[in-house]
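User: Fold this one for me? It's ABC transporter ATP-binding protein.
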Amino acid sequence: MKDVAALRCVARYVKPYWAGTVLLLVLHVVSTMASLVLPAINATVVDGGVVGGQTDLILRLGGLMLVISVFQVACSFTAVFLSSRVATAMAHDLRRDLFASAQSFSAEEVAEFGVPTLITRSTNDVHQVQMVVLSVFNVMVMSPIMLVGGIIMAVREDVRLSGLMILTAPVLGVCVGLILWKVVPHFQRMQQRLDTINTVLREQVVGLRVVRAFTQEDREAERFDEANQHLYDTSLSAGKLMALNTPTVLFIMSLSQVAVVWFGGLAVDSGGLQVGSLIAFLSYIMFILIAVTMATSLFMMIPRAAVAAGRIDEVLGTTSSVEEPASAPPALLTERSRTGRLRFDHAQLSRPGAESPVLSDICFTAEPGTTTAVIGSTGAGKTTLLNLIPRLYDVTGGSITLDGVDLRDIPAQELRSHIGLVPQKAFLFSGTVASNIRYGRPEATDEEIWESLEAAQAADFIRALPDQLDAPVSQGGSTFSGGQRQRLAIARALVRKPLIYLFDDSFSALDAATDAQLREALTSWTRESTVLMVAQRVATVRECEQIIVLDGGAASGQGTHHELLETNQVYQEIVTSQALPEEVR
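Assistant: Here's what I get for ABC transporter ATP-binding protein.
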């Protein structure tokens, strides 16, 4: 069933290019049939022209053969060109839709597949399918016509010699079938081990600083060598089996050629067969050999491509757990109705297979013009709670409403256009400072960018750069420190001027003085917006109008800093772990 689904997936992407596909198939048919005619004409030239001494016949039929050859080459060239265009276009569409599918996934689907395997499926797997589609277009039509046509033409030349093919075909089919049966499981393991090596490599590249800090280079090298060796062993085993294919086919077909020359020579000697017919028969044997070789080579490629196509179809067939509503609610279509009021009403989030909910019975309201802080121990569910608002996850119980409308009734794109998110890990894209800030709002002017940088306490170090806003930013923002990346990520959210700001532990890399200056600047910048922030430091949240204390995925307390300090034990423990209670009152 998986192979059928994979075949349908590939056919669906080839279908839009049906005109080019039909044309190239017709050209291949014409080219192959023209090539089958040439040996028969050549036999007439040899028997009637060379042996019979008819020079006019040689010139006339030789000219005809030349015209047919040129026509065949032109048809073959055009067909190969069209097949390349169709296969490349199909691969382009596959990569585009794989990327779009991955972009539509919620955090749950991304975690389920894993980033390395999504990369492998969008690159290596698509390449495998593209190569097979190209080979199918060039071989699948030519090979059967060449095989069947070669047999028919060979029988036409001499029936007795053609009997040798009846003995050869079953032996050839059994040998190739055994090789295919053995090689398919190796291809499946190869794709899985490609995923593994991508996972290991990505972890080592992303965690390079940690590896070096703990002097674990040798250990990581061994880990990579182990994954690499597994891939090498599997690839080598598959390669050995595939290497048997061509010699096996050549050996069997060469034996049949030897038998044809032997028995054909005896027939020529006895006068039962003409020399031209024997030469033509040998040519058709060669056509049959080429057809079988091409077909078996294609059959060797198909199992690996089928595995790849199945993996691609798995991604394309996966729908996001964050479902889009049938239509946008009218309440969000007018500016006047947008205030940014968020309400969590017994919100709950459960993961498939988990024994207990990640978040349970979360109830609070975040009003416009106020700041709501979420604090708690590591693993309490703070970041997950924030991720519910832009619908990176959807609640599995209760509800979250924006201005009275359930978030699940709002299209994700519409909802996210009103949110400015600063993630826990500040990520910058390769480009310039300006292009990274304009990621929040593409139409932002330079003046607005500078204003957001001022508010984010990033303007000073940007002005110190030679190119200022045009200063280059490497991938991931590695040219900046952690604190600088955080401030640039904050500026990117500020320039958007959304209804809701989400700060996910976005001040952790800042010193106390910069933290205080930034929070003071944010007070005036976000006075009309709803602000939710996750923080670890009590000093960061103590001035917030509302603090939610999470403990084990549940809200153990809610109130201001002073109220929680008096009533909530979990908050008291957090405060005590950072400073004496009297120091933070």
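One thing worth pointing out: The chain has three domains: 89-316, 329-418+500-514+530-585, 425-497.
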